[in-house]
Amino acid sequence: MALKAAIIHVTPFEQNCTLLWDDEAKRATVVDPGGDVPEILAALERYGLTVEQILLTHGHLDHAGGAEELKARTGVRIIGPHLADRMLLDNIGKQAQAYGIEDLADAAPDQWLEEGDSVTIGGLPFDVLHCPGHSPGHVVFVNQAERAAIVGDVLFRGSIGRTDFPYGDHEQLLTAIRTKLYALPDDTKFLCGHGPGGTIGEEKRSNPFVRG
Question: What does the pLDDT look like over 22-32, one tens digit per residue?
Fold first, then answer.
C-alpha cells in the first residue's frame, strides 16, 4: 500500500497493534492499541511520527485495552468500533484482572462507526465495513484503490476469528467474510490482528474454514 506500516506485538496475546502513516506528513494512525503503550510510543518516536487518531476494530481487551492510556498521553480521539461492542469495551478492566494482565482499561470511543462510514488514514479514505461474528461490533477498514484492508480478527492467514464466545456467531462471521471480504479484488492485501497478513485471493483459494 502507499502507506507505511509497522506492527508492534502487544499484550500476552501477541496482538498486532498497527501503525499506519504517510511518509511525507509523518502523521500516524494507531490501530488497536491493546496495551503496552510505552512500547507503542517508543515505536512512534523511532519512526518520527505524530499520532493523529486511534482506530479500534473491535472491543476485545487485547485490541482496545491501551486505547484510553494512549489517548491520555497523546490527546487524540478514539474512533470505532461499532456501538454493538460497547459491552466489551465497558468490561476490559474486569477481563484484564481475570487474565492477570495489568494496566488495561475500559475504553470509551469518541466516535462509533457504522457500515458505510469512512475514515481517513494517511490522507487516504478507507470504507468501514461492519463484519460481526467474532464480536457483535467488529469493523473492517478497506481502501479499494490501494487494494488494502485492515481486518482485525475477522480473517487470518489460513484461519478465521473465534466465535465460541457467548456473543459470537459463526455463521454471521462466515457470511461477513464471504459477502464483504471475499467480494474484494483477489490482490487486496490485508493486515490482521494476530500473525502475518495475506491476500484475499489466497484465502479464497486455500483458507480451510471458508473458501471462496
Answer: 999 999 999 99
